[in-house]
Design a protein that fits this description.
- By secondary structure, this protein is of the alpha/beta class.
- The protein has 2 domains: 228 residues; 143 residues, Transcription Regulator spoIIAA.
- Helices cover 36% and strands 16% of the residues.
- The chain contains 17 helices and 18 strands.
- It has a 5-stranded parallel β-sheet with strand order 3-2-6-7-8. Strands 15-16-17-18 form a 4-stranded parallel β-sheet. Strands 10-13-14 form a 3-stranded parallel β-sheet, with helices on one face.
- Strand 17, helix 15 and strand 18 form a beta-alpha-beta unit.
- Helix 3 runs parallel beside helix 6, helix 13 packs parallel to helix 14 and helix 14 packs parallel to helix 15.
């Protein structure tokens, strides 16, 4: 299977590489070799500015050779061992450092399959100097680093821009000097027995914004360039992680965005990245700038309370035909609890404005199975959707997506318990039936209760996760990519 498998992998990787535009030269030779792992789909990795920022930092560090790795290059084509790097097809086990970028706790579940394929012990204490150094960072590590503390040699819950250069300088000069690395702000070396170090300094995004130095036609923004417009969120929703792990809020100033655009004259499509884009203090001026420069905006998620006719006109001129709103719930009680009030009259007026402006599709995001939710709360959400249908040209222009509540560390609701699976299923069944009665043309989808409960566990668990993964890795067969906890949402 080896040669056939490698040829198939190289063929798919080559076809994807032809869709990429690079703004920095690749660097696959150096004294220290790093495989940068995004444990999910290629398209998601190439849409993730955290992953791309780490890649750019490594790429511009002298003496570092960095290559990418994705366990699935396409949704229908999960990779099977042996694993090779994306750039050169180098065996993944040949790299001196394996650096993982975890954006979602669900991606932790890829660890057993990847480690087993590389014959790397899951438990850090079972590895020796002949194994690669294992590092992990990303939003999920900032959220729950203890879960990975018996697995990885170095954890980076801090921001990459202010932590990674110092880490790499030590590794390049001295190798795995655990004590020296452990003293760095924003870094945790669990094997030292010390508590995580002091928080790192916050990166000034106006001195160097995060952007896509590799633009892939396969990214989630339709092949657009990406730039971070705001880090952190000024809102204080009860269940959201963005505010707590990205404090303080930092916004890219209008003049800095204009400078970046001047430096990238080939940019005709732009995805603006922010947890709450329309809370940017200069969002109207930014949209006007992009409109003047004739740059198409590749964002559809908006804040209904921030919309006006001028912004809608700019969005339509940018080629956007569908928008996304997130009312979260129709229940006044739950709106107060999650700190997301909704003025229903203003919201419905916004719906009418959207369709009057010529938009063809509107997607609504809701959260179901919230703490203390009962049937009356579900009925309130159904009622809001019913009124939205009445405000739209027809139900076929609308869709509704329901996520399920997942308690996260560092949020106000971190200690709230998720609903039991059977109760989740009952709530979903009721919503499906009632919404279908409203209109069979309304498209509705729901997150998986099983996935939500697994994510809840991964968001809250601690070092004991390593023991589960160690046992799972032992069971992984050579021809399997993922462990039993593979997320169904990926539809591999």
């Amino acid at each position: 299977m080896g040669l056939k498998h490698r040829h198939s992998y190289e063929s798919l990787a080559h076809s994807l590489k032809t869709t990429e535009k690079h703004y920095l030269p690749p660097h696959t030779a150096g004294a220290l070799s790093v495989a940068l792992v995004y444990p999910n789909l290629y398209s998601l990795g190439m849409s993730n500015l955290g992953y791309l920022t780490v890649h750019r930092l490594l790429l511009t560090t002298p003496g570092i050779a960095v290559e990418r790795f994705f366990p699935a290059l396409a949704a229908e084509s999960p990779l099977r061992p042996p694993y090779y790097s994306f750039e050169s097809g180098r065996p993944l086990g040949d790299f001196q450092i394996l650096m993982f970028s975890f954006s979602y706790e669900g991606d932790f579940d890829k660890i057993p399959g990847i480690f087993a394929a590389l014959a790397i012990p899951v438990m850090a204490k079972d590895r020796n100097r002949f194994h690669p150094i294992l590092m992990a960072g990303g939003a999920a590590v900032a959220s729950n680093a203890p879960a990975l503390s018996l697995i990885f040699d170095i954890l980076v819950p801090g921001e990459a821009e202010t932590t990674l250069p110092a880490i790499m300088a030590i590794l390049k000069e001295h190798g795995m000097e655990a004590e020296a690395i452990a003293e760095l702000p924003g870094v945790w070396v669990p094997a030292t027995g010390k508590k995580p170090s002091a928080p790192c300094s916050m990166h000034d995004i106006n001195s160097q914004p995060a952007y896509s130095h590799i633009v892939s036609a396969q990214n989630a923004f339709g092949g657009a360039h990406l730039i971070e417009l705001m880090r952190g969120c000024p809102r204080n929703c009860s269940f959201c992680l963005a505010r707590s792990i990205y404090q303080p809020v930092r916004a890219l100033r209008l003049e800095k965005l204009a400078e970046w655009i001047d430096q990238h004259p080939e940019c005709r499509d732009l995805g603006l990245v922010a947890p709450s884009l329309f809370d940017h203090p200069q969002i109207t001026e930014i949209f006007k700038l992009l409109d003047q420069r004739k740059i198409r905006i590749r964002n559809s998620s908006i804040k209904w309370e921030k919309l006006d006719s001028e912004l809608l006109l700019i969005l339509r001129r940018a080629g956007i035909t569908g928008l996304t709103l997130a009312p979260e719930t129709g229940s006044k009680k739950l709106q107060t609890a999650i700190r997301k009030p909704l003025n229903e009259e203003r919201f419905l007026d916004c719906i009418r404005q959207i369709f009057s402006a010529g938009f063809e599709q509107l997607k609504l995001y809701f959260v179901a199975c919230l703490p203390e939710e009962d049937k009356s709360d579900l009925d309130a959400t159904i009622g809001l959707i019913k009124k939205t249908i009445a405000a739209a040209p027809s139900p076929s222009h609308l869709s509704a997506a329901f996520s399920l509540f997942v308690p996260k560390r560092h949020t106000d609701w971190q200690n709230r318990k998720p609903m039991a699976q059977q109760q989740m299923k009952q709530s979903i069944k009721y919503l499906k039936e009632e919404l279908n009665r409203l209109s069979s043309q309304l498209r509705v989808n729901f997150a998986s209760p099983q996935e939500a409960l697994r994510q809840s566990y991964l968001s809250q668990t601690g070092p004991e996760l390593a023991h589960e993964y160690a046992m799972e890795a032992e069971k992984c067969h050579e021809n399997r990519l993922f462990s039993k906890n593979q997320f169904t949402a990926l539809e591999f």
